[in-house]
Amino acid sequence: MARRDTVMRKPKDTRGTLRRMLRFLGPFRWVILGVACLSLVSNVLSLWGPNLAGSAIREAAAGKGLVNFERVAYYATLMLVCYLASSLLGFVISLIMTVVSKRVGRQMRQSVFDKLMKLPVGYFDRHQAGDIISRVSYDIDVISTCIATDVVQILTSVVTVVGSVVMMVSISLPLSAVVLVTVPVAISYTAWMRKRTQPRYAKRSRSYGDMNGFVEEMLSGQKTILAYAYEDKVDERFDKINQTAADAYADAEHYGVTIGPTMSGINNLSLSLIGLLGAVLFMNGAIDLGRISSFVLYSRKFAGPINAIAEIVNELFSALAAAERVFTLLDEQEEAADAENAVELSDVQGRVEADHVVFGYDPGRTIIHDLSLTAEAGRLTAIVGPTGVGKTTVINLLMRFYDPDSGCIRIDGQDIREATRRSVRSAYAMVLQDTWVFNGTIFDNIAYGKENATMEEVVAAAKAAHIHPFIMRLPQGYQTVISEDGGNISKGQKQLLTIARAMLYNAPMLILDEATSNVDTATEREIQRAMRELMKGRTCFVIAHRLSTIENADLILVMNGGDVVEQGTHAELMEKKGFYYGLYSAQFE
Prior knowledge:
This protein has 3 domains: 1-171 and 319-332, ABC transporter type 1, transmembrane domain (ABC transporter transmembrane region fold); 173-286; 352-588, P-loop containing nucleotide triphosphate hydrolases (Rossmann fold), CATH 3.40.50.300. 63% of the residues lie in helices and 10% in strands. It contains 18 helices and 12 strands.
């Protein structure tokens, strides 16, 4: 049976991880106990086969020309029945454990996904999406595969090894001593080789990871590569990375491929010694031919699990290490619970105040030093400034993705830390620069934020966002299915869809983070006029780099170095000829 190519990854807390894995297996404990019983019966039947083969050979050899074919046929038939029954039980065991492993995997994925929905935004800021996806998919797959195959292998190996030893000792103690002498040699050699092969397999895995990462990066940037005529340079870099991976593969296989033949050589040595000693015992009348045949078959059964033990342990450690990564995620601190007497924001008017807010994502590294602002209800407030001064951080604080280190933010006079997070976030509709659409119809994507939205409401929002004509040109109109992440529509069209979604969402406040960055200037101005009309009576926060788009804002907050250094209308700020004036002039120069 071909086994997975894995690299030993020892978990930090083997016992603790194993205990937690057993808790996931708890609901299936009776099923697993039943599997253990079936495995015992299956292996006993399989172990009885060599004994029956020896009896058949003994009957054939005892006749001295007058063979009792009925007795030979009886033993042969009984042996066939034992092997068939053992195989059938093995199939049932594998089927049951496959079902168990899939259910455990499904439960673990559900637990992980439920956990992800409860984690704070900061967790996703600190961890790469690829690493999280790897835990949800690859690591849990490793665990499921281990449950489906390695658990059965362990049960089978234990019963086979113990049963084979018992049967060999019962047949001949001298021959058993020969077999057992070679076992330490095999184990020592395997351990010695594993110390040399594991680092090489690890290096091979890293090399292949580097190569796959480079290929993925180059494919995602293919247009840029072509635009800069960089194909030859990329080819050269890949050639070096590919050569390193090939060398690592060859180095690992150079050692790895010697293990199988060497172990076979040790087993063949054991067989040779058995044959030599068996012949001596047979000639001295100490053992008959049938028992020698049975002993040889048992020695082969004994050798198989011994050879596989190191690989099974390797895979078990890999599965436990994968489980530890999953449990580490499950142990992450969830978003802090709402205050005990937290209030539900209702009938929000939209007046937002920030009072001497100080905040940093990491201790000792302050991003917002002293933020104070007042955004009147129903007014448009723009936040501008150079890259990295904290504009998006302000939005994170307004939405209560993070809480300030000191100071407070109030909505209609209510400190948002004393309100439920859900009600605070529900008070805002949001459109980000990085658009997000999902696999589904255009109707579903626009109506995402509003349950039971009607077609009339969706169409009205689409018209206001100036995307209705585009939708009507599609073959199925609003029922057209968008591929994953909107791969079959342009970036600008995705942006318009998310703007339509925000328009439909019945929230008293709106946040736009470079929301019109992917549309042309004419469309941008039309959208702004439509938004102004639709947002009457709503508070709107806009982060903008193109200052021409926020000239009509009721209030412009100019940020620099984590502080609001200027605020006022466009005309007022231009008249001051301060920091904003310099930013505005630089864009038009």
